[in-house]
Amino acid sequence: MSGSTTATAPSGRRVPGSQGGANRWLVLVVLCVSLLLVAVDATVLHVAVPAVTEDLKPGGIELLWIVDVYPLVCASLLILFGTLGDRIGRRRVLLLGYALFGVASAVAAMADNAQVLIAARALLGVGGAMIMPATLSILRQVFPDRRERAVAIGVWSAVAGIGAAGGPLLGGFLLEHFWWGSVFLINIPLMLVSLPIGRLLLPESTGDRDGPWDVVGALMAAGGLFGLVFAVKRAGGGESPFGMTTLLSFFLGTALLVGFVRRQRRRKHPLIDLSMFSRPAFSTSLGCIVLAMLALVGLELVAAQYLQLVLGLSPLETGMRLVPLTVAAMVAGLAGSKFLHRFGPRTMVASGFTLTAVAVVVLTGMGDQLNDPLMITSFVLLGLGLQTTLFGSYESMLSEAPQSQAGGAAAIGETSYQLGAGIGIALLGSVMNAAYAPGLSSVQGVPAKESAAASHSLGEAYEVASGLGGGAGEALRSAARESFVHGLHVTLLVSAGLLLLGALMALKLPRTMECGAASQDQDRDQDQDQDHEPKPDADAGIPAPRDGAGVRVESSVR
Protein backbone atom coordinates (compact mmCIF):
# COMPACT_ATOMS: atom_id res chain seq x y z
CA MET A 1 0.00 0.00 0.00
CA SER A 2 1.21 3.47 -0.72
CA GLY A 3 1.09 6.37 1.71
CA SER A 4 -2.32 7.04 3.17
CA THR A 5 -3.82 10.21 4.60
CA THR A 6 -6.30 10.36 7.39
CA ALA A 7 -9.13 12.53 6.16
CA THR A 8 -10.85 13.17 9.46
CA ALA A 9 -9.82 14.15 12.93
CA PRO A 10 -10.75 12.07 15.98
CA SER A 11 -13.95 14.09 16.35
CA GLY A 12 -14.99 13.17 12.84
CA ARG A 13 -14.56 16.62 11.32
CA ARG A 14 -12.37 17.18 8.32
CA VAL A 15 -8.81 18.36 8.88
CA PRO A 16 -6.68 20.24 6.39
CA GLY A 17 -4.61 17.90 4.34
CA SER A 18 -3.56 17.17 0.85
CA GLN A 19 -7.03 17.85 -0.51
CA GLY A 20 -6.32 21.56 -0.77
CA GLY A 21 -7.95 24.54 0.88
CA ALA A 22 -6.50 27.62 2.52
CA ASN A 23 -5.89 25.75 5.77
CA ARG A 24 -2.85 24.04 4.31
CA TRP A 25 -1.03 27.36 4.68
CA LEU A 26 -1.93 27.37 8.39
CA VAL A 27 -0.40 23.88 8.52
CA LEU A 28 2.75 25.38 7.02
CA VAL A 29 2.85 28.02 9.75
CA VAL A 30 2.65 25.34 12.46
CA LEU A 31 5.40 23.31 10.79
CA CYS A 32 7.62 26.36 10.45
CA VAL A 33 7.25 27.24 14.13
CA SER A 34 8.32 23.67 14.94
CA LEU A 35 11.36 23.92 12.71
CA LEU A 36 12.28 27.36 14.04
CA LEU A 37 12.54 26.04 17.60
CA VAL A 38 14.73 23.11 16.60
CA ALA A 39 16.99 25.26 14.40
CA VAL A 40 17.40 27.95 17.08
CA ASP A 41 18.19 25.37 19.74
CA ALA A 42 21.04 23.99 17.62
CA THR A 43 22.99 27.29 17.86
CA VAL A 44 21.54 29.33 20.73
CA LEU A 45 23.77 27.67 23.34
CA HIS A 46 27.01 28.67 21.60
CA VAL A 47 27.05 32.19 23.06
CA ALA A 48 25.95 30.89 26.48
CA VAL A 49 28.93 28.54 26.91
CA PRO A 50 31.00 31.04 29.00
CA ALA A 51 28.05 31.62 31.37
CA VAL A 52 27.38 27.89 31.67
CA THR A 53 31.08 27.27 32.36
CA GLU A 54 31.16 29.90 35.10
CA ASP A 55 27.99 28.62 36.79
CA LEU A 56 28.20 24.81 36.51
CA LYS A 57 32.02 24.44 36.43
CA PRO A 58 32.01 21.55 33.93
CA GLY A 59 35.21 19.71 33.05
CA GLY A 60 36.61 19.89 29.52
CA ILE A 61 34.95 16.65 28.42
CA GLU A 62 31.65 17.63 30.06
CA LEU A 63 31.67 21.00 28.31
CA LEU A 64 32.27 19.28 24.99
CA TRP A 65 29.29 16.99 25.57
CA ILE A 66 27.07 19.90 26.64
CA VAL A 67 27.64 21.55 23.25
CA ASP A 68 27.79 18.46 21.02
CA VAL A 69 25.31 15.96 22.49
CA TYR A 70 22.26 17.70 20.98
CA PRO A 71 23.33 17.59 17.30
CA LEU A 72 24.96 14.18 17.84
CA VAL A 73 21.82 12.51 19.19
CA CYS A 74 19.57 14.36 16.74
CA ALA A 75 21.58 13.27 13.69
CA SER A 76 21.75 9.68 14.92
CA LEU A 77 17.99 9.25 15.35
CA LEU A 78 16.65 11.04 12.27
CA ILE A 79 16.26 7.87 10.19
CA LEU A 80 14.79 5.93 13.11
CA PHE A 81 12.03 8.47 13.80
CA GLY A 82 11.54 9.41 10.15
CA THR A 83 10.71 5.81 9.23
CA LEU A 84 8.72 5.31 12.45
CA GLY A 85 6.55 8.25 11.43
CA ASP A 86 5.93 6.59 8.06
CA ARG A 87 4.72 3.54 10.00
CA ILE A 88 2.69 4.81 12.98
CA GLY A 89 1.79 8.32 11.79
CA ARG A 90 3.86 11.42 11.16
CA ARG A 91 1.65 13.77 13.17
CA ARG A 92 1.78 11.40 16.14
CA VAL A 93 5.58 11.38 16.14
CA LEU A 94 5.66 15.17 15.70
CA LEU A 95 3.36 15.80 18.68
CA LEU A 96 5.35 13.40 20.86
CA GLY A 97 8.45 15.32 19.80
CA TYR A 98 6.79 18.58 20.88
CA ALA A 99 6.04 17.18 24.33
CA LEU A 100 9.53 15.76 24.81
CA PHE A 101 11.15 18.97 23.59
CA GLY A 102 9.18 21.04 26.09
CA VAL A 103 9.98 18.77 29.04
CA ALA A 104 13.67 18.58 28.11
CA SER A 105 13.83 22.39 27.78
CA ALA A 106 12.49 22.81 31.32
CA VAL A 107 15.03 20.32 32.69
CA ALA A 108 17.89 22.04 30.83
CA ALA A 109 16.88 25.50 32.05
CA MET A 110 16.83 24.35 35.69
CA ALA A 111 19.93 22.11 35.54
CA ASP A 112 22.18 22.60 38.56
CA ASN A 113 25.08 20.45 37.36
CA ALA A 114 26.74 19.47 34.11
CA GLN A 115 25.43 15.89 34.11
CA VAL A 116 21.79 16.99 34.26
CA LEU A 117 22.37 19.53 31.48
CA ILE A 118 24.01 16.88 29.27
CA ALA A 119 21.07 14.50 29.81
CA ALA A 120 18.57 17.28 29.06
CA ARG A 121 20.43 18.25 25.88
CA ALA A 122 20.37 14.59 24.81
CA LEU A 123 16.58 14.51 25.32
CA LEU A 124 16.33 17.71 23.27
CA GLY A 125 18.20 15.86 20.52
CA VAL A 126 15.65 13.02 20.67
CA GLY A 127 12.82 15.53 20.43
CA GLY A 128 14.50 17.32 17.56
CA ALA A 129 14.95 14.04 15.67
CA MET A 130 11.20 13.40 16.05
CA ILE A 131 10.25 16.90 14.87
CA MET A 132 12.55 17.60 11.92
CA PRO A 133 11.70 14.77 9.46
CA ALA A 134 8.03 14.91 10.47
CA THR A 135 7.73 18.58 9.47
CA LEU A 136 9.16 17.95 6.01
CA SER A 137 7.19 14.74 5.36
CA ILE A 138 3.89 16.34 6.43
CA LEU A 139 4.70 19.28 4.17
CA ARG A 140 5.27 16.79 1.34
CA GLN A 141 1.81 15.33 1.93
CA VAL A 142 -0.12 18.57 2.49
CA PHE A 143 1.22 20.13 -0.74
CA PRO A 144 0.93 17.45 -3.45
CA ASP A 145 1.17 20.01 -6.26
CA ARG A 146 4.83 20.64 -6.94
CA ARG A 147 4.45 24.36 -7.67
CA GLU A 148 2.73 25.00 -4.33
CA ARG A 149 5.11 22.64 -2.60
CA ALA A 150 8.04 24.64 -3.95
CA VAL A 151 6.59 27.78 -2.35
CA ALA A 152 6.09 25.92 0.94
CA ILE A 153 9.63 24.51 0.90
CA GLY A 154 10.95 27.99 0.18
CA VAL A 155 9.23 29.32 3.31
CA TRP A 156 10.32 26.24 5.29
CA SER A 157 13.98 26.56 4.27
CA ALA A 158 13.96 30.32 4.92
CA VAL A 159 12.72 29.66 8.46
CA ALA A 160 15.50 27.09 8.93
CA GLY A 161 18.06 29.71 7.93
CA ILE A 162 16.48 32.28 10.24
CA GLY A 163 16.64 29.84 13.13
CA ALA A 164 20.26 28.88 12.60
CA ALA A 165 21.43 32.47 12.11
CA GLY A 166 19.12 33.91 14.77
CA GLY A 167 20.21 31.52 17.51
CA PRO A 168 23.37 33.43 18.48
CA LEU A 169 21.52 36.77 18.21
CA LEU A 170 18.69 35.59 20.46
CA GLY A 171 21.13 33.97 22.86
CA GLY A 172 23.19 37.15 23.11
CA PHE A 173 20.07 39.22 23.85
CA LEU A 174 18.81 36.84 26.54
CA LEU A 175 22.22 36.61 28.23
CA GLU A 176 22.38 40.38 28.52
CA HIS A 177 19.08 40.44 30.44
CA PHE A 178 18.61 37.00 32.06
CA TRP A 179 20.54 33.92 33.22
CA TRP A 180 21.81 31.25 30.82
CA GLY A 181 18.82 28.94 31.43
CA SER A 182 16.57 31.43 29.64
CA VAL A 183 17.91 30.22 26.28
CA PHE A 184 16.04 26.97 26.95
CA LEU A 185 13.07 28.35 28.83
CA ILE A 186 11.75 30.25 25.81
CA ASN A 187 10.86 26.89 24.19
CA ILE A 188 8.23 25.98 26.77
CA PRO A 189 5.41 28.49 26.03
CA LEU A 190 5.83 27.93 22.29
CA MET A 191 5.56 24.18 22.73
CA LEU A 192 2.51 24.56 24.99
CA VAL A 193 0.83 26.47 22.17
CA SER A 194 2.09 24.20 19.39
CA LEU A 195 0.79 20.97 20.94
CA PRO A 196 -2.97 21.76 20.88
CA ILE A 197 -2.76 23.73 17.64
CA GLY A 198 -0.78 20.93 15.99
CA ARG A 199 -3.33 18.33 17.09
CA LEU A 200 -6.14 20.52 15.78
CA LEU A 201 -4.66 21.53 12.41
CA LEU A 202 -2.15 18.92 11.30
CA PRO A 203 -3.42 15.97 9.24
CA GLU A 204 -2.32 12.45 10.06
CA SER A 205 -0.61 10.39 7.39
CA THR A 206 1.37 7.19 7.13
CA GLY A 207 3.52 5.47 4.56
CA ASP A 208 3.84 1.82 3.65
CA ARG A 209 2.50 -0.34 6.50
CA ASP A 210 3.10 -3.71 4.86
CA GLY A 211 5.21 -6.03 7.01
CA PRO A 212 6.71 -5.36 10.46
CA TRP A 213 8.75 -2.28 11.26
CA ASP A 214 12.42 -3.26 11.15
CA VAL A 215 13.45 -2.45 14.72
CA VAL A 216 16.88 -4.04 14.33
CA GLY A 217 17.53 -2.07 11.15
CA ALA A 218 16.43 1.19 12.80
CA LEU A 219 18.81 0.58 15.71
CA MET A 220 21.64 -0.30 13.31
CA ALA A 221 21.09 2.99 11.46
CA ALA A 222 21.02 4.94 14.74
CA GLY A 223 24.17 3.25 16.06
CA GLY A 224 26.01 3.63 12.78
CA LEU A 225 25.18 7.33 12.45
CA PHE A 226 26.08 7.94 16.10
CA GLY A 227 29.50 6.37 15.61
CA LEU A 228 30.17 8.18 12.34
CA VAL A 229 29.01 11.62 13.52
CA PHE A 230 30.86 11.18 16.84
CA ALA A 231 34.10 10.44 14.99
CA VAL A 232 33.64 13.44 12.72
CA LYS A 233 32.91 15.73 15.67
CA ARG A 234 36.01 14.52 17.56
CA ALA A 235 38.15 15.25 14.52
CA GLY A 236 36.52 18.66 14.16
CA GLY A 237 37.01 19.39 17.86
CA GLY A 238 40.79 19.24 17.59
CA GLU A 239 41.30 15.57 18.44
CA SER A 240 43.68 13.56 16.29
CA PRO A 241 41.76 11.86 13.45
CA PHE A 242 44.02 8.84 14.02
CA GLY A 243 43.33 8.55 17.74
CA MET A 244 42.05 5.19 18.98
CA THR A 245 38.62 6.47 20.07
CA THR A 246 38.05 8.38 16.82
CA LEU A 247 39.13 5.49 14.58
CA LEU A 248 37.16 2.90 16.56
CA SER A 249 34.04 5.06 16.44
CA PHE A 250 34.47 5.68 12.71
CA PHE A 251 34.97 2.04 11.73
CA LEU A 252 32.23 0.76 14.03
CA GLY A 253 29.77 3.35 12.69
CA THR A 254 30.73 2.57 9.10
CA ALA A 255 30.37 -1.18 9.69
CA LEU A 256 26.89 -0.74 11.18
CA LEU A 257 25.79 1.45 8.25
CA VAL A 258 27.12 -1.07 5.71
CA GLY A 259 25.27 -3.80 7.59
CA PHE A 260 22.13 -1.65 7.59
CA VAL A 261 22.28 -1.20 3.80
CA ARG A 262 22.81 -4.93 3.22
CA ARG A 263 19.93 -5.75 5.55
CA GLN A 264 17.59 -3.34 3.73
CA ARG A 265 18.44 -4.89 0.38
CA ARG A 266 17.51 -8.36 1.65
CA ARG A 267 14.22 -7.43 3.31
CA LYS A 268 10.89 -7.64 1.53
CA HIS A 269 9.65 -4.58 3.44
CA PRO A 270 12.71 -2.39 4.09
CA LEU A 271 12.74 0.68 6.28
CA ILE A 272 14.06 2.74 3.38
CA ASP A 273 13.58 1.99 -0.29
CA LEU A 274 17.21 2.12 -1.42
CA SER A 275 16.09 2.35 -5.03
CA MET A 276 15.57 6.08 -4.34
CA PHE A 277 19.36 6.46 -4.47
CA SER A 278 19.39 5.14 -8.05
CA ARG A 279 17.43 8.22 -9.13
CA PRO A 280 20.01 10.81 -10.23
CA ALA A 281 18.01 13.79 -8.96
CA PHE A 282 17.64 12.28 -5.48
CA SER A 283 21.26 11.21 -4.97
CA THR A 284 22.65 14.39 -6.57
CA SER A 285 20.45 16.57 -4.35
CA LEU A 286 21.80 14.81 -1.26
CA GLY A 287 25.37 15.33 -2.49
CA CYS A 288 24.67 19.03 -3.01
CA ILE A 289 23.29 19.36 0.53
CA VAL A 290 26.41 17.70 1.96
CA LEU A 291 28.78 19.88 -0.06
CA ALA A 292 26.94 23.11 0.74
CA MET A 293 27.08 22.43 4.47
CA LEU A 294 30.62 21.05 4.32
CA ALA A 295 31.85 24.27 2.76
CA LEU A 296 29.93 26.66 4.96
CA VAL A 297 29.40 25.38 8.50
CA GLY A 298 33.11 25.12 9.28
CA LEU A 299 33.50 28.55 7.74
CA GLU A 300 30.74 29.89 10.01
CA LEU A 301 32.63 28.66 13.07
CA VAL A 302 35.85 30.32 11.90
CA ALA A 303 33.98 33.52 11.03
CA ALA A 304 32.43 33.71 14.51
CA GLN A 305 35.92 33.55 16.05
CA TYR A 306 37.13 36.19 13.59
CA LEU A 307 34.34 38.61 14.46
CA GLN A 308 34.78 38.24 18.21
CA LEU A 309 38.50 37.61 18.71
CA VAL A 310 40.06 39.57 15.83
CA LEU A 311 37.57 42.43 15.47
CA GLY A 312 36.61 42.44 19.16
CA LEU A 313 32.83 42.35 18.68
CA SER A 314 30.51 41.16 21.47
CA PRO A 315 28.24 38.12 20.97
CA LEU A 316 25.27 40.44 20.38
CA GLU A 317 27.24 42.58 17.90
CA THR A 318 28.35 39.38 16.15
CA GLY A 319 24.73 38.27 15.87
CA MET A 320 23.76 41.68 14.48
CA ARG A 321 26.39 41.32 11.73
CA LEU A 322 24.56 38.17 10.58
CA VAL A 323 21.23 39.99 10.10
CA PRO A 324 21.93 40.87 6.40
CA LEU A 325 22.68 37.19 5.73
CA THR A 326 19.40 36.18 7.39
CA VAL A 327 17.34 38.74 5.47
CA ALA A 328 18.93 37.70 2.17
CA ALA A 329 18.20 34.04 2.95
CA MET A 330 14.55 34.90 3.63
CA VAL A 331 14.26 36.72 0.31
CA ALA A 332 15.86 33.84 -1.60
CA GLY A 333 13.62 31.30 0.10
CA LEU A 334 10.42 33.22 -0.63
CA ALA A 335 11.40 33.87 -4.27
CA GLY A 336 12.85 30.40 -4.79
CA SER A 337 9.71 28.75 -6.19
CA LYS A 338 9.45 31.28 -9.03
CA PHE A 339 13.11 30.88 -9.95
CA LEU A 340 12.84 27.10 -9.76
CA HIS A 341 9.86 27.02 -12.09
CA ARG A 342 11.50 29.45 -14.51
CA PHE A 343 15.08 28.15 -14.59
CA GLY A 344 14.81 24.56 -13.34
CA PRO A 345 16.73 22.73 -10.59
CA ARG A 346 20.01 22.38 -12.52
CA THR A 347 20.49 26.09 -13.25
CA MET A 348 19.17 27.19 -9.87
CA VAL A 349 21.37 24.98 -7.69
CA ALA A 350 24.49 25.48 -9.84
CA SER A 351 23.95 29.25 -9.78
CA GLY A 352 23.45 29.18 -6.02
CA PHE A 353 26.74 27.37 -5.51
CA THR A 354 28.54 29.79 -7.83
CA LEU A 355 27.08 32.88 -6.13
CA THR A 356 28.06 31.52 -2.73
CA ALA A 357 31.60 30.89 -3.97
CA VAL A 358 31.80 34.49 -5.19
CA ALA A 359 30.63 35.71 -1.76
CA VAL A 360 33.29 33.63 -0.03
CA VAL A 361 36.04 34.97 -2.29
CA VAL A 362 34.88 38.56 -1.63
CA LEU A 363 35.28 37.86 2.11
CA THR A 364 39.01 37.34 1.58
CA GLY A 365 39.22 41.13 1.39
CA MET A 366 38.60 41.27 5.16
CA GLY A 367 41.67 42.02 7.27
CA ASP A 368 42.26 42.80 10.94
CA GLN A 369 40.09 45.93 10.75
CA LEU A 370 36.30 46.06 10.53
CA ASN A 371 35.03 46.73 7.00
CA ASP A 372 31.24 46.82 7.27
CA PRO A 373 30.45 47.56 3.57
CA LEU A 374 32.52 44.61 2.38
CA MET A 375 31.13 42.34 5.10
CA ILE A 376 27.50 43.29 4.42
CA THR A 377 27.95 42.77 0.66
CA SER A 378 29.52 39.38 1.21
CA PHE A 379 26.91 38.25 3.73
CA VAL A 380 24.04 39.30 1.45
CA LEU A 381 25.54 37.32 -1.44
CA LEU A 382 26.20 34.44 0.93
CA GLY A 383 22.60 34.36 2.15
CA LEU A 384 21.19 34.52 -1.38
CA GLY A 385 23.52 31.84 -2.72
CA LEU A 386 23.28 29.42 0.18
CA GLN A 387 19.51 29.60 0.45
CA THR A 388 19.13 29.17 -3.32
CA THR A 389 21.34 26.08 -3.22
CA LEU A 390 19.64 24.43 -0.25
CA PHE A 391 16.15 25.28 -1.46
CA GLY A 392 16.72 23.76 -4.90
CA SER A 393 18.42 20.69 -3.43
CA TYR A 394 15.74 19.99 -0.81
CA GLU A 395 12.89 20.53 -3.27
CA SER A 396 14.41 18.18 -5.84
CA MET A 397 15.19 15.54 -3.21
CA LEU A 398 11.71 15.60 -1.71
CA SER A 399 9.93 15.63 -5.06
CA GLU A 400 11.86 12.57 -6.22
CA ALA A 401 10.84 10.51 -3.17
CA PRO A 402 7.53 8.60 -3.24
CA GLN A 403 4.95 9.89 -0.76
CA SER A 404 4.96 6.54 1.08
CA GLN A 405 8.67 7.10 1.85
CA ALA A 406 8.38 10.81 2.69
CA GLY A 407 9.48 10.39 6.31
CA GLY A 408 12.50 8.29 5.42
CA ALA A 409 13.46 10.63 2.58
CA ALA A 410 13.18 13.69 4.82
CA ALA A 411 15.31 11.94 7.44
CA ILE A 412 17.96 11.12 4.85
CA GLY A 413 18.03 14.75 3.71
CA GLU A 414 18.39 16.04 7.28
CA THR A 415 21.06 13.43 8.02
CA SER A 416 23.01 14.62 4.96
CA TYR A 417 22.74 18.15 6.31
CA GLN A 418 24.10 17.10 9.71
CA LEU A 419 26.90 14.98 8.24
CA GLY A 420 27.94 17.77 5.90
CA ALA A 421 28.03 20.20 8.83
CA GLY A 422 30.15 17.85 10.95
CA ILE A 423 32.58 17.05 8.16
CA GLY A 424 32.86 20.74 7.33
CA ILE A 425 33.87 21.63 10.87
CA ALA A 426 36.46 18.84 10.87
CA LEU A 427 37.87 19.56 7.41
CA LEU A 428 37.91 23.35 7.44
CA GLY A 429 38.99 23.38 11.07
CA SER A 430 42.01 21.30 10.06
CA VAL A 431 42.75 23.64 7.15
CA MET A 432 42.51 26.63 9.46
CA ASN A 433 44.86 25.11 12.03
CA ALA A 434 47.39 24.09 9.36
CA ALA A 435 47.48 27.65 8.00
CA TYR A 436 47.43 29.34 11.43
CA ALA A 437 50.00 27.42 13.46
CA PRO A 438 53.21 28.05 11.40
CA GLY A 439 52.99 31.80 11.94
CA LEU A 440 53.54 31.35 15.67
CA SER A 441 56.56 29.04 15.52
CA SER A 442 59.20 31.77 15.86
CA VAL A 443 57.83 34.90 17.51
CA GLN A 444 60.68 37.00 18.89
CA GLY A 445 60.96 36.82 22.67
CA VAL A 446 58.39 34.01 23.07
CA PRO A 447 59.67 30.64 24.44
CA ALA A 448 59.02 27.50 22.41
CA LYS A 449 56.62 26.07 25.01
CA GLU A 450 54.42 29.16 24.96
CA SER A 451 54.54 29.30 21.15
CA ALA A 452 53.35 25.70 20.95
CA ALA A 453 50.43 26.44 23.30
CA ALA A 454 49.49 29.57 21.36
CA SER A 455 49.40 27.62 18.10
CA HIS A 456 46.35 25.61 19.25
CA SER A 457 43.85 28.45 18.82
CA LEU A 458 43.57 32.22 18.77
CA GLY A 459 41.79 32.25 22.13
CA GLU A 460 44.62 30.27 23.72
CA ALA A 461 47.18 32.57 22.08
CA TYR A 462 45.54 35.56 23.75
CA GLU A 463 45.69 33.81 27.14
CA VAL A 464 49.38 33.00 26.68
CA ALA A 465 50.08 36.58 25.56
CA SER A 466 48.35 37.95 28.67
CA GLY A 467 50.49 35.67 30.84
CA LEU A 468 53.72 36.80 29.16
CA GLY A 469 52.92 40.50 29.26
CA GLY A 470 55.25 43.22 28.04
CA GLY A 471 56.68 43.36 24.55
CA ALA A 472 56.75 39.57 24.09
CA GLY A 473 53.06 39.31 24.94
CA GLU A 474 52.13 42.09 22.54
CA ALA A 475 54.28 40.55 19.78
CA LEU A 476 52.57 37.18 20.29
CA ARG A 477 49.12 38.75 20.23
CA SER A 478 49.90 40.62 17.00
CA ALA A 479 51.42 37.54 15.34
CA ALA A 480 48.45 35.40 16.37
CA ARG A 481 46.00 37.90 14.93
CA GLU A 482 47.89 38.11 11.64
CA SER A 483 48.20 34.31 11.44
CA PHE A 484 44.50 33.87 12.10
CA VAL A 485 43.56 36.29 9.31
CA HIS A 486 45.92 34.41 6.97
CA GLY A 487 44.32 31.10 8.02
CA LEU A 488 40.89 32.59 7.46
CA HIS A 489 41.80 33.58 3.89
CA VAL A 490 43.14 30.09 3.13
CA THR A 491 40.00 28.51 4.58
CA LEU A 492 37.81 30.82 2.50
CA LEU A 493 39.59 29.80 -0.70
CA VAL A 494 39.23 26.09 0.13
CA SER A 495 35.54 26.69 0.80
CA ALA A 496 35.19 28.42 -2.57
CA GLY A 497 36.76 25.40 -4.27
CA LEU A 498 34.30 23.05 -2.56
CA LEU A 499 31.40 25.26 -3.60
CA LEU A 500 32.53 25.25 -7.24
CA LEU A 501 32.74 21.46 -7.02
CA GLY A 502 29.12 21.55 -5.86
CA ALA A 503 28.20 23.66 -8.89
CA LEU A 504 29.66 20.96 -11.15
CA MET A 505 27.76 18.27 -9.26
CA ALA A 506 24.51 20.22 -9.69
CA LEU A 507 24.79 19.82 -13.48
CA LYS A 508 23.43 16.28 -12.99
CA LEU A 509 20.09 17.64 -11.75
CA PRO A 510 17.09 17.83 -14.11
CA ARG A 511 17.08 20.77 -16.48
CA THR A 512 13.41 21.63 -15.94
CA MET A 513 10.93 21.43 -13.07
CA GLU A 514 8.27 18.81 -13.83
CA CYS A 515 4.94 19.97 -12.44
CA GLY A 516 1.70 18.07 -12.00
CA ALA A 517 3.56 16.20 -9.31
CA ALA A 518 0.49 15.07 -7.40
CA SER A 519 -0.69 12.67 -10.06
CA GLN A 520 2.87 11.64 -10.88
CA ASP A 521 3.54 10.82 -7.24
CA GLN A 522 0.42 8.70 -7.01
CA ASP A 523 1.32 6.81 -10.18
CA ARG A 524 4.86 6.27 -8.94
CA ASP A 525 3.63 4.98 -5.57
CA GLN A 526 1.20 2.61 -7.28
CA ASP A 527 3.96 1.33 -9.53
CA GLN A 528 6.17 0.71 -6.53
CA ASP A 529 3.36 -1.10 -4.71
CA GLN A 530 2.92 -3.36 -7.71
CA ASP A 531 6.65 -3.97 -7.85
CA HIS A 532 6.54 -5.47 -4.36
CA GLU A 533 3.61 -7.80 -5.14
CA PRO A 534 3.99 -11.21 -6.84
CA LYS A 535 3.21 -10.78 -10.53
CA PRO A 536 1.33 -13.54 -12.42
CA ASP A 537 2.17 -14.45 -15.96
CA ALA A 538 0.06 -12.02 -17.97
CA ASP A 539 -0.29 -14.33 -20.95
CA ALA A 540 -0.83 -17.72 -19.39
CA GLY A 541 -2.74 -16.60 -16.30
CA ILE A 542 -0.54 -18.77 -14.05
CA PRO A 543 1.64 -17.84 -11.06
CA ALA A 544 5.09 -16.46 -11.72
CA PRO A 545 7.70 -19.18 -12.25
CA ARG A 546 10.02 -20.52 -9.59
CA ASP A 547 13.70 -21.08 -9.97
CA GLY A 548 15.42 -24.43 -9.66
CA ALA A 549 15.54 -24.22 -5.85
CA GLY A 550 11.80 -23.73 -5.59
CA VAL A 551 12.10 -20.01 -4.77
CA ARG A 552 9.45 -17.79 -6.25
CA VAL A 553 10.89 -15.46 -8.90
CA GLU A 554 9.44 -11.97 -8.62
CA SER A 555 9.65 -9.34 -11.31
CA SER A 556 10.78 -6.11 -9.67
CA VAL A 557 11.40 -3.14 -11.92
CA ARG A 558 12.77 -0.05 -10.21
Describe this structure as you would to a colleague.
It is a single chain. The chain is mainly alpha-helical. The protein has 19 helices and 2 strands. Strands 1-2 form a two-stranded antiparallel ribbon. Helix 1 packs across helix 6 (146-177), helix 4 packs antiparallel against helix 8 (187-201) and helix 11 crosses helix 15 (406-436). The longest helix is centred in the middle third of the chain and has 41 residues, at 323-363. It is globular and about 75 Å long. The model is unreliable at 1-22 and 516-558 (pLDDT under 50).
Question: What order do the helices and strands come in, and which of them pair?
Answer:
Blueprint: E1 4-5, H1 23-43, H2 49-56, H3 60-88, H4 90-109, H5 114-142, H6 146-177, H7 182-185, H8 187-201, E2 205-206, H9 215-236, H10 244-266, H11 280-310, H12 315-321, H13 323-363, H14 372-400, H15 406-436, H16 448-454, H17 458-468, H18 470-505, H19 517-531
Antiparallel strand pairs: 1-2
Features:
mainly alpha; two-stranded antiparallel ribbon; globular; 558 residues; single chain
What percent of residues are in strands?
under 5%
Structural class comes to mainly alpha
For the largest sheet, list the strands in their spatial order: 1-2
| Contiguous uncertain segments of 5+ residues | 1-22, 516-558
Number of strands: 2
Helical content class: over 70%
Count of alpha and pi helical runs: 19
N-to-C SSE string, H for helix and E for strand: EHHHHHHHHEHHHHHHHHHHH
**Mean pLDDT reading:** 75
Radius of gyration: 25 Å
Q: Span between N and C termini? A: 16 Å
Reported for the largest beta sheet, the result is: 2 strands, antiparallel
